[in-house]
Design a protein that fits this description.
about 375 residues; alpha/beta; Rossmann fold; seven-stranded parallel sheet; four-stranded mixed sheet; 11 strands; isomerase; DXP_reductoisomerase
Length: about 375
């Protein structure tokens, strides 16, 4: 049996991880789980899975959950705040941590888990985007596995397995193209939030759905792939693949290309990461190639979807520039979701922030500096509208 904590248990990845646990026939056990403020969902999880520990970021919500546990004789200890996240990420009783939080909030508990020598099932892109060098260095120091959960990085991870990394020539990251594939700038001037949330293939959270619509999601994945697989940015290629059947590919020095294909079901990479190095029984639908019929590939439009271009730029500059990119994007997406800016303003805000804060990029890459800069970038974005 593998015992795990899930950081961000009520989100899309967290919910699907619970489904994987239910279908594991006792081979996976939930020990700890965290949420922000979803009291009712956490209570349902306590009732069904009986985790010994839960954490709530919101202090008032933590008190509500504690009250429920006392009144219903639940043997669940409730933690709160960032200290609670860190505690549940580093419990003695667990083997692996699913980090499915969205945004910068995932960085500190991930580092705490690594220091506690817990393997990481990584579904939080921002952790490697803003602190890839720090996280991978700590993972190496403590002998911890970083197991990718994003479908694209899981595909690369699987395609590399058993091969000599020195023969890796290129990583090919596939992208669905999002809801606005084929559109030009003129078409995107009056895009509404509801339009941007309608992803054609995947069921994702609100923030990630907007990132997919701008192609920033793919940009963050480029930076993540750089750190996960020690691959130069020049050798990471994004290819638009609207069918979302090929989850990503790897090209080797002899020009052979190995791809991982599968249904559009995040439970597949979740199951693979949690059970690594084993493959478990069928959990999703199999592909019917007669029904698939064809696979198409296109070049991304970097002028219309500028966030992808900015992500490449930030990654190549390095240092704290990806922190600036990520912070500005998180703040801009939040403003768009709240209907305070237009869709195309997101890219403009990111680009301006990278220019305004460029003098900061060579500061030491420490947790304190990352958190401080992220905060200041977000404050700048909000104050500038």
């Amino acid at each position: 049996m593998k015992r795990l904590s899930i950081l961000g248990v009520t989100g899309s990845i967290g919910t699907q991880t619970l489904n994987v646990i239910k279908k594991s026939k006792g081979e996976l056990k939930l020990i700890g789980a965290t949420a922000n403020s979803s009291v009712n969902k956490i209570i349902e999880i306590i009732d069904e899975f009986n985790p010994p520990y839960v954490g709530m970021m919101n202090l008032e919500c933590a008190d509500e959950v504690k009250k429920y546990c006392i009144e219903n004789d639940k043997q669940t200890t409730v933690f709160s705040g960032i200290e609670g996240l860190n505690k549940i990420a580093s419990l003695d009783e667990i083997d692996i941590v699913m980090t499915s939080l969205v945004g910068m909030i995932g960085l500190e508990p991930t580092l705490e888990a690594i220091k506690a020598k817990k393997d990481i099932a990584l579904a939080n892109k921002e952790t490697l985007v803003v602190a890839g060098e720090l996280v991978m260095s700590e993972a190496k120091k403590y002998g911890v596995k970083i197991l990718p959960v994003d479908s694209e990085h899981s595909a690369i991870f699987q395609s590399l397995r058993g091969n000599d990394l020195r023969t890796l020539k290129k990583i090919i990251l596939t992208a669905s193209g999002g809801p606005f594939r084929g559109k030009k700038l003129e078409d995107l001037k009056n895009i509404q939030v509801e339009d941007a949330l309608k992803h054609p293939k995947w069921n994702m959270g609100r923030k990630i759905s907007i990132d997919s619509a701008t192609l920033m999601n793919k940009g963050l994945e480029v930076i993540e792939a750089h750190w996960l697989f020690d691959c130069d940015y020049e050798n990471i290629q994004v290819v638009v693949h609207p069918e979302s059947i090929v989850h990503s590919m790897v090209e080797y020095s002899d020009a052979s290309i190995i791809a991982q294909l599968g249904a559009q079901d995040m439970r597949l990479p979740i199951q693979y990461a949690l059970n690594y190095t084993e493959r478990k029984n069928l959990i999703a639908d199999t592909l019917d190639f007669y029904e698939v019929s064809k696979l198409t590939f296109e070049k991304p439009d970097l002028q219309t979807f500028k966030p992808l271009l900015l992500a490449y730029k930030a990654g190549k500059i390095g240092g704290l520039m990806p922190t600036i990119l990520n912070g500005a994007n998180e703040a801009a997406v939040e403003l768009f979701l709240n209907k305070k800016i237009k869709f195309l303003n997101i890219a403009d805000i990111i680009e301006k922030s990278m220019e305004v804060f460029k003098s900061e990029i060579d500061k030491p890459l420490t947790l304190k500096n990352i958190i401080d800069l992220d905060k200041r970038v977000k404050e700048y974005v909000v104050s500038s509208i």
